[in-house]
Amino acid sequence: MNAPIPPATPNDFAAYPDAQGRFGQFGGRYVAETLMPLVLDLEAAYLASREDTAFQAELAGLLTHYVGRPSPLYFAERLTEHFGGAKIYFKREDLNHTGAHKINNCIGQILLARKMGKTRIIAETGAGQHGVATATVCARFGLPCVVYMGAVDVARQKPNVFRMNLLGAEVTPVTSGASTLKDAMNEALRDWVTNVEDTYYLIGSAAGPHPYPMMVRDFQAIMGREIREQILEAEGRLPDAVVACVGGGSNAIGTFHPFLNDESVRIIGVEAAGDGMGTDRHAAAINGGRPGVLHGNKTYLLQDAEGQITEAHSISAGLDYPGIGPEHSWLHDVGRAQYLTATDIEALDAFKLCAELEGIIPALESSHAIARLPDIAREVGKGGIVVMNLSGRGDKDVATVADHLGRTI
Amino acid sequence: MTKSRIEARFAALKAQDRAAFVAYVMAGDPDRATALKILQGLPAAGADLIELGFPFSDPMAEGPPIQKAAQRALKNGMTLKGVLDLAAEFRQGDDVTPLILMGYLNPLVTWGFEAFAQAAAQAGIDGLIIVDCPPEEADPLADALDAADISLIRLATPTTDDKRLPVVLRRTSGFVYYVSVTGVTGAKEADAEAVRPAVARIRAASGLPVAVGFGIRTPERAGAIARVADAAVVGSALVDEVAEALAVNEDVTGRVLSKVRALAEAVRQARTSLPA
Predict the structure, then answer these.
(1) Which of B155, B216, B222, B185 lies closest to B68, judged by CA?
(2) Minimal Cα–Cα distance from B83 to chain A, Å?
């Protein structure tokens, strides 16, 4: 079963996953038996919610009045001029309530958790953006919330830890493994397998066992649908490329999905290359890993020759994960999407450039996508259109950036 | 195929009207030489079957004791091939005690299921328990194990209702492992009275012996479980003995085997000392 299977090009990219939760060979439900009835229940509840008009109306109302959707599609005029190629547009997810795209998915899942009668919410977080978004919706709906966060991330994302506490969430630092996102996810799974009766696991990445990759994608695909409408209004045509940074890949898949069947639209993800792809300190699962099974799904993973998972490294806590959502692995294998990389230093430079030229301080995660824009804008060329998902704002990262610039704040 | 070691062992114990004591140890914990000595000492100390854990970096269903044991084994260079070598060395001195590997899927994906299954059979492995491989995902692995005459042992849990049980039992052989508590290994305590009906239900549906594990730490509890199940599995409590012996610089092998003797004795006496 490990011989490489030549991927078939599907006719309808949007028709996946299949009934087993698979995108080609990727995805699936690799969880402990205790959790199997729970993920099957969740799948049934989620599929029912898609047909439930009251549920959809409540979701739409909250996205409009609580999150602040639609987020603007902004023409980044000075960066466009600076790069001297295609027109650059930013999808401004940084302007959402809580400052990132993560809230889109949290609103959807908290409504589902309520519908399923769950009374306790758990989540994992890397940068803390998903933790903050989860703590936010738990406060809004009056549900207790426990957020697992690697101890290393607790230290480097202090403002977000405090925000979660202000919102009433309990943040549990995780000290197993490398004390980052992967270990936080292990610990959240251990909590879930222990508290099966009342607990809802609110996963923030388009990863984990089926139905999470599909469900998180669907809740995040509102971004891509809005981009479609907004760019048609602004330019009268579809973009030539859509670009997003990829860790687990929720902002990227939400951006990409509504464009998968538009052959003229190039789809480009940017993975975190950390110290560089020539080193072993990076977080690029597709560019530097191989398929394996972790956290409930089969996908590209950073791992050693023995199949032990290796630690990811990125300046950006939100990209510091050794895996990637299974749909990205499949889009890579079938050649529908292209996955590039950007190093820590390139992301830092892009962070500064965006602040100076556009007056927007981007998240370090999104800065990885910005870092590849000069090449993409040049390749697409003048007269072309590139839309990049500015997935979050960088307020949470100012201390990290100051540290790297040798500045004390 | 001839009668497997697992079938033979359960048949012999049934004739004696007693449950099996199953000892779980982590291969390579704390190092290869000590792990081999422990393994070789287990049958004489009273282990009727042995579960040999193979280490994984991200053991999602384990509590801290087995997480740490896996880290110790990995730190000392244990690999899946190394685990099979250890098993083969054990087999040179013992051709009857069933040896079940227990761990996570990714190291097997890396090796390749067919090649791994053949190597495991060569090393004298009788069965395999893969925590993160539910029936929905198990067919490729089950095919490879069938071809090598290795049993894929399935897990049933408190969340396995009547509707799901047939799914869990499809293509299972050897015995069924009942996870007696919802949770990670070594955290909650199994309640024999709560376990009794579950064991009866699984036994009736599968026609196979039912082993109970995940919440047994003491001889008293092992004895209580042995009165209602076909086997009692102890893992975290044994692995804790390794950690504690290391902490106080004591003889690791001696300490683990003495705990095994106490647990095995309680299981042996369970159905004679008290009415069932």
Answers:
(1) B185
(2) 12
